[in-house]
Amino acid sequence: MLSFSPKKNLSILVHFLGWIMLCVVLLLLSPLSWRMGEINLPIQYWFKQAFLLGTLIAIFYSNSSLVVPRVLLKGKNYLYLLIIILGAVIFYGMIVYFEQISGYAKEMHATFNSDRPFNPKKRWLPGDVFQLLLYVISIGLSTSVALVEKWQKDESVRRELDRQRINTELSYLRAQINPHFFFNTLNNIYSLTNLDVSKAQEALLKLSRMMRYVLYENQKNETLLSKEVRFIEDYIELMKMRLSSKVRLEIQIDEPKEDLVIAPMIFLPFLENCFKHGVSSQQESNILIKMEIMGNTVFFETKNRIFPINQDSPEAHESGIGLVNTQRRLSLIYPEKHRLKFGKDDATQQYWVTLTIDLG
């Protein structure tokens, strides 16, 4: 069965209305300007107008469907120009031939100039110029329509390719984030098994809840902000279990009041870096994690000191792909709708991150 999209239906309607307007101009407005109440136009005139309209329609669609795609869009510009010129000659010859076989010129002369002798070799120059002008207009409009349709098709293909590329790239980035996240988390639980088995068991329960979030939500393009906030809180609670009394956490996280949606696990690399670099077993350390939600805007901030990582720790050999991936995800998902800044304060030896995302 044939199916018509709204765009295709609209295109058909526009073409139909356009030809209706041309019919009105050729068949009604022009004769009305000739004082039709006083002049009875011969039947040959109406045959000529119908023939002219049909010829223009054939020229329009032949040019837009055949000549432009197969000649002009192939880069054969001179051949296209030659075809257009030959088409004009053929069009003019067809009009002259139709007038001769239908007796159009003789009948029109009798209608408008009955007091003068008829000369079959003499033509009305303004009428020929007007007909050739209609040909040029038909060629120009059909060429423009064909080029616009080609541009729209190319643009649609380009957007589809961009969408597929972005989806593929995001899937790849998410696939990188998951092992990175689980590596750090399992390393934390491994450390707990040497200190407190019950805490390790509790950590595994929390991890299983977080894994459900990763398995079901991280495979989607977006999730509820409220779910992302609960994931962050679970992650922080999990990290608390391995922290000593030397670490002071300052957590300020707003509860989402609306059903806002966000890309899943977008904040995780910043949290990981806080606990990876901001914790020391020898010195006092402070970690700030703050999230404010104002309308459709989320403001996220972290601050932590930077301590050297034990070279015997598996974390020391990580390349930091989490932060790089997050920057790339933000640029793909929230172009022009996010602001990410980060840096190090040399005076306090604190590393800070601020991220603002407009979810509207």
UniProtKB/TrEMBL annotation:
Residues 169-246 form the Signal transduction histidine kinase internal region domain. The keyword Iron-sulfur does not apply. Signal peptide: none annotated. One of its GO terms (cellular component) is membrane. InterPro entries: Bact_2-comp_sensor_kinase, HATPase_C_sf, Sig_transdc_His_kin_internal. Keywords: Kinase, Membrane, Transferase, Transmembrane, Transmembrane helix. The keyword Iron-sulfur does not apply. Pfam families: His_kinase. The chain crosses the membrane at residues 12-34, 46-66, 78-98, 129-148. GO terms for molecular function: phosphorelay sensor kinase activity. This is Histidine kinase. The lineage of its organism: Bacteria, Pseudomonadati, Bacteroidota, Cytophagia, Cytophagales.
